[in-house]
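The following record pairs a protein chain with its ligand, zinc ion.
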Amino acid sequence: MRQPNDWRLMGQERYLQEVTLVHRQYRPANPDNDHDHCAFCKVKFMEADGSDTLSKGYSTPDGYYWVCENYFRDFVDMFEWEVVSEI
Ligand SMILES: [Zn+2]
Protein backbone atom coordinates (compact mmCIF):
# COMPACT_ATOMS: atom_id res chain seq x y z
CA MET A 1 0.00 0.00 0.00
CA ARG A 2 1.16 3.49 -0.61
CA GLN A 3 1.51 6.23 1.98
CA PRO A 4 0.81 9.96 1.50
CA ASN A 5 4.56 10.62 1.52
CA ASP A 6 5.42 7.50 -0.43
CA TRP A 7 9.17 7.06 -0.86
CA ARG A 8 8.59 5.86 -4.39
CA LEU A 9 7.37 9.31 -5.41
CA MET A 10 10.23 11.40 -6.71
CA GLY A 11 8.51 14.14 -8.64
CA GLN A 12 6.67 11.87 -11.08
CA GLU A 13 3.52 13.89 -10.40
CA ARG A 14 5.07 16.77 -12.33
CA TYR A 15 4.86 14.86 -15.59
CA LEU A 16 2.43 12.02 -14.90
CA GLN A 17 -0.45 13.62 -13.00
CA GLU A 18 -3.76 13.18 -14.86
CA VAL A 19 -2.15 12.11 -18.13
CA THR A 20 -3.48 9.51 -20.54
CA LEU A 21 -1.65 6.19 -20.39
CA VAL A 22 -1.76 3.68 -23.21
CA HIS A 23 -1.66 -0.01 -22.33
CA ARG A 24 0.53 -1.35 -25.11
CA GLN A 25 3.38 -3.48 -26.30
CA TYR A 26 6.67 -1.80 -25.61
CA ARG A 27 8.35 -0.01 -28.46
CA PRO A 28 10.96 2.71 -28.13
CA ALA A 29 9.91 6.28 -28.83
CA ASN A 30 13.39 6.99 -30.11
CA PRO A 31 14.73 4.58 -32.77
CA ASP A 32 18.27 5.01 -31.43
CA ASN A 33 17.14 3.57 -28.12
CA ASP A 34 16.27 -0.07 -27.48
CA HIS A 35 14.82 0.17 -23.99
CA ASP A 36 13.13 2.39 -21.41
CA HIS A 37 12.67 2.18 -17.66
CA CYS A 38 9.58 2.35 -15.50
CA ALA A 39 9.16 5.88 -14.14
CA PHE A 40 8.76 4.45 -10.64
CA CYS A 41 10.74 1.26 -10.12
CA LYS A 42 13.23 1.40 -13.01
CA VAL A 43 12.35 -2.04 -14.33
CA LYS A 44 13.49 -2.27 -17.94
CA PHE A 45 11.16 -2.44 -20.92
CA MET A 46 12.41 -4.09 -24.10
CA GLU A 47 10.69 -5.35 -27.23
CA ALA A 48 11.95 -8.90 -26.73
CA ASP A 49 10.71 -10.86 -23.73
CA GLY A 50 13.41 -11.45 -21.16
CA SER A 51 13.70 -12.83 -17.66
CA ASP A 52 14.21 -9.41 -16.10
CA THR A 53 12.57 -7.16 -18.69
CA LEU A 54 9.00 -6.35 -19.63
CA SER A 55 7.60 -6.27 -23.16
CA LYS A 56 4.39 -4.45 -22.33
CA GLY A 57 3.18 -1.80 -19.95
CA TYR A 58 1.62 1.63 -19.78
CA SER A 59 3.07 4.66 -21.54
CA THR A 60 2.23 8.23 -22.24
CA PRO A 61 0.85 8.61 -25.78
CA ASP A 62 4.24 9.85 -27.02
CA GLY A 63 5.91 6.72 -25.60
CA TYR A 64 8.28 8.83 -23.54
CA TYR A 65 7.32 7.69 -20.04
CA TRP A 66 6.60 4.07 -19.11
CA VAL A 67 4.93 2.58 -16.05
CA CYS A 68 4.93 -1.13 -15.20
CA GLU A 69 1.77 -3.03 -14.32
CA ASN A 70 2.51 -3.23 -10.58
CA TYR A 71 3.09 0.48 -10.18
CA PHE A 72 0.21 1.27 -12.43
CA ARG A 73 -2.10 -0.54 -10.01
CA ASP A 74 -0.59 1.19 -6.99
CA PHE A 75 -0.78 4.72 -8.35
CA VAL A 76 -3.71 4.83 -10.76
CA ASP A 77 -6.03 6.36 -8.13
CA MET A 78 -3.54 8.96 -6.97
CA PHE A 79 -2.48 10.09 -10.45
CA GLU A 80 -5.99 9.89 -11.94
CA TRP A 81 -4.74 8.36 -15.14
CA GLU A 82 -7.03 7.99 -18.09
CA VAL A 83 -6.34 4.63 -19.68
CA VAL A 84 -6.70 3.59 -23.28
CA SER A 85 -5.81 0.13 -24.50
CA GLU A 86 -3.91 -0.90 -27.59
CA ILE A 87 -3.75 -4.54 -26.52
ZN1 LIG B 1 7.67 -0.11 -12.27
